[in-house]
């Protein structure tokens, strides 16, 4: 219990202390017009209240990531608490805030456009490919997971594919509506269900309901053996992403950058909602460790993906009726994030191919093919999709952190706050790609780690040299310095 309470307290302190420092470093201007006002179009650029933007942002970035990720991360033991707390405060929340604010300064641009502006036009095509891959995988994951949860609580036996089709129909209808109608009207209610159900599970866990025995972080936790003998590094950092550091968030924050009324809302909306997601992740990691031992947890996951754990935990701690409501709260997350993933992907591809989204026909021309591709992806095993999602997710996080680093470097501000986590996660990505089953699958060894360090250093040196050249070419009145 002490580990959990201290961890949550540190997350909250991080918002007020480090979050304020990050905000001062960026230096938001309360008088500067935002894209919501200067580019208002009634569809994607629509001013909305601060509280509504914050709830939408939380639901956009969360999905099942801060639930499924910690459930899977519990297989590594209590050491996951460290990654959630430190990763969230010093990497994930900084990542979300910086990309959100840089997007505001660039007319609500998405990550591919920001990459083109700050890293060079050649990067735009690669990042656009990664963003498309990531969002397709995210959207598909967030169709399958709520469908699986719904199937478990609905009476009778409804085929999974029928539920998947129903979710796609909901997505199609919502994607073509203006953002204040599609998200602004229903998300506050979704947010209330999510927050209440998550807090209820957390409180019942602290009370020891269902025989929950909370595990503490000790030195022995670092030798905790994953049931499949997967090493903590880099496995843990890809298993728990949402809640700690997630590149998916870099594809979502620009949507809210297009609806914010003032830059000073950024710390609460971007940094603060990432902290909130970290609290959700802490609760689900703690409850997974408290209810199961690692063998039971691994077997339960194998029988029905992490959704089965959600069902068992919710009913065990809250009873059948209230537990079902809690499961509905969990279902809200992937439904909202899946919808937002497809909406963001539509915007990214429309920007990339220069297709204005000012008529229904043009919106559908971009949207419908995405759903067709995603539907066929639902026939692939969920665990395979999840593994590739985590891989693409953290590579995207590295790219976003490097964009933020270049922005701060060009403006002569403290770029280390984004550069240090970028270097760490770049090395983790290189090692993961070299050793993971969905990568080159080399056995972990001193040689592999040495090669990984060499590759990472070479990439960072190339990045640093290009940044120096870019900064040397700037003039005092260069538009990049005015953003």
UniProtKB/TrEMBL annotation:
Which residues span the membrane? Answer: 126-154, 160-179, 186-210, 230-248, 268-292, 317-342, 363-385, 391-409, 416-435, 447-465
Question: Lineage from the top down?
Answer: Bacteria, Bacillati, Bacillota, Bacilli, Lactobacillales
Q: Which UniProt keywords apply?
A: Cell membrane, Membrane, Transmembrane, Transmembrane helix
Where in the cell?
Cell membrane
Q: Set out the biological process GO terms recorded for this chain's protein.
A: cellular response to starvation
Membrane topology type: Multi-pass membrane protein
**Source organism, top-level taxon:** Bacteria
What PANTHER family would the database entry show? CARBON STARVATION, INNER MEMBRANE PEPTIDE TRANSPORTER
GO CC aspect terms: plasma membrane
CstA N-terminal domain: which residues? 3-144, 162-316
Q: What family classification does the UniProt entry report for this protein? A: Belongs to the peptide transporter carbon starvation (CstA) (TC 2.A.114) family.
User: InterPro entries of this UniProt entry?
Assistant: CstA, CstA_N
Q: Which organism is it from?
A: Dolosicoccus paucivorans
Q: What is this protein called?
A: Carbon starvation protein A
Task: Specify whether Cell membrane is a keyword of the entry.
Answer: yes
């Amino acid at each position: 219990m002490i580990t959990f309470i201290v961890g949550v307290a540190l997350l909250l302190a991080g918002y007020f202390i480090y979050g304020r420092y990050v905000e001062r470093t960026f230096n938001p201007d309360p008088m500067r017009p935002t894209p919501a006002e200067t580019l208002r179009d009634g569809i994607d650029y629509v001013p909305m209240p601060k509280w509504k933007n914050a709830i939408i942002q939380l639901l956009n970035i969360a999905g099942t990531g801060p639930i499924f990720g910690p459930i899977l991360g519990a297989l590594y033991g209590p050491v996951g608490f460290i990654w959630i707390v430190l990763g969230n405060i010093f990497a994930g929340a900084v990542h979300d805030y910086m990309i959100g604010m840089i997007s505001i300064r660039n007319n609500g641009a998405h990550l591919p456009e920001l990459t083109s502006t700050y890293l060079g036009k050649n990067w735009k095509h690669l990042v656009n490919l990664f963003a498309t891959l990531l969002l397709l995988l995210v959207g598909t994951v967030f169709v399958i997971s709520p469908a699986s949860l719904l199937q478990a609580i609905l009476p009778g036996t409804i085929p999974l594919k029928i539920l998947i089709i129903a979710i796609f129909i909901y997505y199609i209808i919502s994607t073509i509506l203006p953002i204040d109608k599609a998200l602004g009207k229903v998300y506050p209610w979704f947010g209330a269900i999510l927050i209440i159900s998550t807090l209820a599970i957390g409180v019942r866990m602290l009370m020891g309901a269902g025989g929950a025995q909370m595990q503490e972080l000790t030195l022995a936790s670092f030798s905790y053996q994953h049931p499949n003998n997967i090493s903590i590094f880099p496995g843990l950092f890809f298993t728990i992403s949402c809640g700690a550091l997630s590149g998916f968030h870099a594809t979502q924050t620009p949507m809210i950058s297009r609806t914010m009324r003032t830059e000073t809302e950024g710390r609460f909306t971007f940094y603060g909602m990432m902290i909130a997601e970290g609290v959700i992740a802490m609760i689900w990691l703690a409850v997974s460790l408290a209810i199961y031992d690692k063998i039971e947890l691994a077997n339960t996951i194998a029988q029905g993906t992490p959704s089965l754990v959600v069902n068992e935990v919710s009913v065990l701690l809250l009873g059948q009726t209230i537990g079902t409501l809690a499961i509905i709260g969990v279902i809200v997350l992937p439904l909202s994030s899946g919808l937002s993933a497809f909406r963001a992907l539509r915007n990214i591809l429309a920007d990339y191919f220069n297709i204005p989204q000012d008529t229904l026909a043009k919106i559908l021309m971009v949207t419908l093919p995405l759903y067709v591709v995603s539907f066929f992806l639902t026939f692939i095993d969920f665990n395979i999709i999840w593994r590739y999602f985590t891989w693409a997710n953290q590579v995207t996080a590295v790219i976003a952190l490097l964009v933020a680093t270049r922005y701060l470097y060009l403006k002569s501000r403290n770029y280390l706050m984004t550069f240090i986590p970028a270097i760490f996660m770049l090395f983790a990505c290189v090692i993961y790609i070299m050793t993971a089953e969905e990568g080159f699958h080399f056995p972990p060894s001193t040689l592999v780690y040495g090669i990984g360090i060499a590759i990472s250093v070479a990439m960072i040196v190339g990045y640093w040299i290009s940044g120096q050249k870019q900064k040397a070419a700037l003039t005092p009145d260069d538009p990049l310095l005015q953003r």
